[in-house]
Amino acid sequence: MADLAQLRTEAEAAVGAAGSAAELEELRVRYLGRKSELTQALRSIGELRPDERGPVGKQANEVRRALEGLLERRTAELDASELDQRLTEDHVDVTLPGDPPVPVGHLHLVSQIRRRMEDIFVGLGFSVVEGPEIEYEYYNFTALNHPPEHPARLPQDTFYLAEQVLLRTHTSPMQVRAMELKEPPIYIVVPGRVYRPDTPDATHVPMFHQLEGLAIDEDLTLADLQGTLLAFARQMFGEHTDVRLRPGYFPFTEPSVEVDVSCFRCGGTGYEGSERCPTCKGEGWIEILGSGMVDPNVLDYVVGSGYDKERVQGFAWGMGIERIAMLVYQVPDLRMLFDNDLRLLEQFGAGP
Amino acid sequence: MRVPFSWLRSYCDPGRPAQHVADRLTMAGDKLERLHRVGVGDVAAFVTGRVVDAERHPDADRLSVCKVDVGRGEPQTIVCGAPNVSAGQTVAVALPGAVMPDGSTLGEAKLRGVVSSGMILAEDEVGIGEDHLGIMVLDGDVPVGAPLAEHLPIADEVLELEVTPNRPDLMGVYGVARDLHAVTAAPLAEDPTEADAEPRGADSADEHISIEIDPEICLRFTARVFEDVKIGPSPLWLKQRLTAAGQRPISNVVDITNYVMLNTAQPLHAFDLDEVRGGGIVVRRAADGERMVTLDGTERAFTSEMALVCDAEGPSGIAGIMGGQVSEVSDKTTRVLMEAATWVGPNIMRTSKALGLRSEASARFEKQLHPEQAIRAQRLAARLMVDLCEARMVPSAVDMYPRPLAPRSVELRPERMAKLLGTVVPADEVHGILDRLGFEPRDDDGRVSVTVPPWRDSDVQREADLIEEVAHVYGLDKLPTTLPARRAAVGRLTPNQRLHRRVEDLLRDRGLGECIAYSFTSPRALERLRIADQPALRLENPLSEEQSVMRPLLLPGLLDAAHHNAAHGRPALALFESAHVYRPSGPLDRAGTGSPGGATPALERHHLAVLQTQALPGGWRSEPRPADFFSSRALVEAVLEAADIAWRPESAGQPFLHPGRAASVVAAADERDIGWVGELHPSVAAEWDLVGPVAGFEIDMDAVAELSEGAERVYSDVTSFPAVLQDIAVVVADETPAAAVLAAVRGGGGPLLAGVELFDVYRGEQVGEGEKSLALRLEFRARDRTLTDEEVASLRSAIEAGLAEIGGRLRG
User: Fold this and answer.
1) Going by C-beta distance under 8 Å and a sequence separation of 6 or more, which residues neighbour residue A235?
2) CA of B560 to nearest chain A CA: how many angstroms apart?
3) Residues of B in contact with A106 (CB under 8 A)
4) Per-residue pLDDT reduced to its tens digit, B492-503
5) Residue B347: how many CA atoms within 13 Å on its side-chain side?
6) Of 3.40.640.10, 3.40.50.620, 3.30.930.10, 3.40.50.300, which CATH number belongs to B495-584+602-708?
7) pLDDT in tens, B178-203
8) CA B633 to CA B404: how far, in whole Å?
9) Does the structure's ipTM exceed the value 0.85?
């Protein structure tokens, strides 16, 4: 029956052109309904000659299945496109902020820098230890080779709570405490608060933070100190940073050295364009810490825990965390760091 | 220390510019603070001239119209206001175009109708001194028209050096020259204190003066006597050196004392010998409350610690710090007693600090000078007294030096130095450096022996000190850069440090901002918190009452921060701090000199505290949620969950908390009270000008760390057999705490009740007056089987029975 093929072509074209579910339903009734040509054809198969029934029946069923499949696919297509259209109409302004707002807070600037320093030295093989801030004069001065008449002991330079009890003026007393607790070798850094009775101004406050370092082993040298601090400086300030040792003076190190880093702002040239670099004041170098080889007199105070000055030696340093924070973030006034003003603290992100 | 470059170069001249010299000194330990220019801007327009003619100005009595030959054809016409100008003088002239010390450029000027082409100069106009009363008159044999700079130091540079406390020798120009010599090897001129003046006469100093000292406070006292002293202004070269170094020229005798001090670091004092009452000087301790007027016109009171220089009638000076007005040198002085003494450095420092009086002399004495330096300074001063004041030096000196110090010998092992520095300094370098520094090195069987020169005695006493000397001069820039071989060092944070970071991060990630507040607080703040009666540690010497107490809790710092931010437009905030707090642990005083053996003087604990005025900020479709008990409690829950600690709140207050909305935080493991959580008492919050609910918590992180240790966990099977979930509503009296309901449910459910979660609290029509309904989700689970309906039903009955015991019943 030639008209079945024609019927299929015609139906396929109509279904393909249908634009809505209603049209498709109408087409389903027209081509597959009880009164449709195809249904009629299938019903009248019995009237055919026996040898024609097989092929005609097969063809009619094929056409039916094809049309049913096509209708189903077309319905799905129309559904999907209708959904898409609905969803497109249901758009939101993606530039509005998230809600409810769940902000991320921040670590204090000093904590951020302290953590970065700790992590660098942990990577270099140092352990982090902490100690008391209310300290005995013995640990803060005496065992650090400050003679009894040393001016730093005067109440003009040290807060006292009682005879021989004070607020530590540096993190260095932990050097002695740590050596009392552990035999050499020792590799430690000590972050923490320290106190000095300085009248507050842009570069002085009565409380600030230091990070102390101490390394004692059999054969540590001043050259090792330079290498350790160079490794620190490059991670802290950038891989092109250089360090420079300058002679210095501290009671508990000998030789004593001041350590400068090449200015990370101007690259050590001292100039930004034709202007003097404000970070290094045109010098190209920035003083960041004091250090040196641990004085043999200090080792004598802990000889009982195995620190024989003829057998072990090492180096120590102390640096101001605020000073580095102020340099790195260009904060102009130290006092600002302790106002806890969110307008300042929020400028530096969540922190590491 | 201000070091005039021309003065420095007169002793050691490496032939390099000042900046280069300063850089070398910096790298040797004499750090340059600033390089100053002093004097005129450009020496070119300054010449010598001769006054050919000086006539009174026709229209001005005080001005002279001068003709000055400056060696350039016709004499210049220069109008001069100085009273001492007269024909025939050789003078210093600035020609038009000259740049003056203040940076201005001299032009031709019309003065009362007469055009003046230049200026005849007074001292202050070229920065030599301060004298502006008259012009400078030069020696008659100075040629006319010569560059002025060849005859007068009218331009100089000044190196301002930072001197470390161990180097009093660098408080003198010659000491700096010696360091410069050591680092550059440029020749060093003879020590100006070597040569002495010729005494004249047959008398001796001790006939003119008697001296008595207390050897505990005065290590040496030397005195020389000068007669026929002619007081007058100092020569220009001396004035220029003093001015450049920052000292005001006064008169030749006073200038000599200052000059010798600036050159050698040894301060001197000149007395008018005729004004020394009783002809004798006594050095003694002050009586408590004794008073004197010092040279600066201030009356000062002393204590018995302080050393005074006295004559027969009382104190005439504070030893080593400042003289008095009694026997000051004046214009009428003809007999001078020159004192050069050595004091006990720490004593001078204490006195200076106690009196709040610091002088050039005390800055040097407090660093401990060597007694040898006193007599050396006398020699230089004597030559200048004879040369500049035409004085007669009376033979011999009075020299009280009861306990002479022996020269110190120190040995240096080269192999020890190499081991410490990480590099080998060649032997000849070691010798050269020590020699140039004045240490007289000698080879001694493989070791280097030195004799420490007196000016370095306080600083160099051991091998380590000598190694430092060599390293500093040899050049730290020559050191290799190496890393420690590090055989046994493994770096890591301790569990406690990681716990601190974890809870700080947790609060940060929930939107809180970290604060760092001062560890001090005020007694007033503790009063406002109503805890003034609790023990706290007080500083003996606080900067202010506001910072006089060590804080016993973190809360006041957070309240200050909240107050500050609220006052600056940020009333809604959530802050935390993680830091030490301090309490007394017993008597603080400690007798004894040895190590405390690791003990700590006070009770210091690490606390974590939160203060919130807002739980969650509002958005464009949500309201902000104010802080309350539950918002802070949620943070405690999170922190202690992160620390893996079981705890419960117990209704108990703190004086500063809302009595109905606060609890203490109690650890389940050992019933320890580890902190508080709650809303602040509105009256307390109001003390910090905070309105609306303020909530927070404070917990002892040291206790948390101890409790957090060692919680080991093992696997528990939750996949093999399904759980049975059931929701129930429990009606109880309003005052029954939720915790009691949960405990009753858990008690009834037994081990097969794997979990209970409270998800709603209801009060209203559907329950009775004075009652509430708690909605709970129950999770029943057995490890070894699937629970049957019958088993669950019997567990529910048991729960119901448990609830009945606390007056509860199931609803619906």
Assistant:
1) A120, A123
2) 9
3) 508, 513-514
4) 899 999 999 999
5) 21
6) 3.30.930.10
7) 999 999 999 999 999 999 999 999 99
8) 74
9) yes
